Amino acid sequence: xxAKRPPTPLSRERIIDAALHIADGxxxxxxxxxxxxxxxxxxxxxxxxxxxxGKEALMDALAEHVTAVQVEPREAPWQEIARDWxxxxxxALMEHxxxxxxxxxxxxKGTALMAVASQVEQLRDAGLDHAQEAVQTLRAYxxxxxxxxxQASGWADPDAEVEKARVATxxxxxxxxxxxxxxxxxxx
Length: 188
Prior knowledge:
Layout: H1 12-26, H2 33-40, H3 44-47, H4 55-67, H5 78-95, H6 100-105, H7 110-125, H8 131-153, H9 170-187
Helix pairs in contact: 1-2, 4-7, 5-7, 5-8, 7-8, 8-9
Keywords: DNA-binding, Repressor, Transcription, Transcription regulation
InterPro entries: Homeodomain-like_sf, HTH-type_TetR-like_transc_reg, HTH_TetR, Repressor_TetR_C, Tet_transcr_reg_TetR, Tet_transcr_reg_TetR-rel_C_sf
Pfam family, one: TetR_C_1
């Protein structure tokens, strides 16, 4: 009989990955500490060692994970930098549709807050005077566009048999709306 492999150590990252898998596959309502413990093959109480505030800390960590988008700084017009950020944010949210509601309701904290500050700084350095307001507008557009695309895909319908939270025209619709937002920001 082969030797039994030791279990993979529990870590914050492993907990978040398992929670994202549950939220994306079954919905956020089905994410319980017990179900998460079962997925990790540990007692639910073991999770509290890594997330002492329990489920609230888990929800904060999931929101932070999908909103802490980073884009490498580069020399470019502010519109191109804003496009990079918007596309990266959309990609992160579309990768984990199960936690969009957290991204919409949890204020940025930790690395997510640092990402917002970096975005403001990059846009300001590229010559955009009202960078803080522009970032708020861009975030609102991205979150709204992702929510509309998920709704149109049927992904959020508990009775639907939908694998992906995407629609065929999603990329084109997003880019058309983003161009309109950037044009508006340029003229304001």
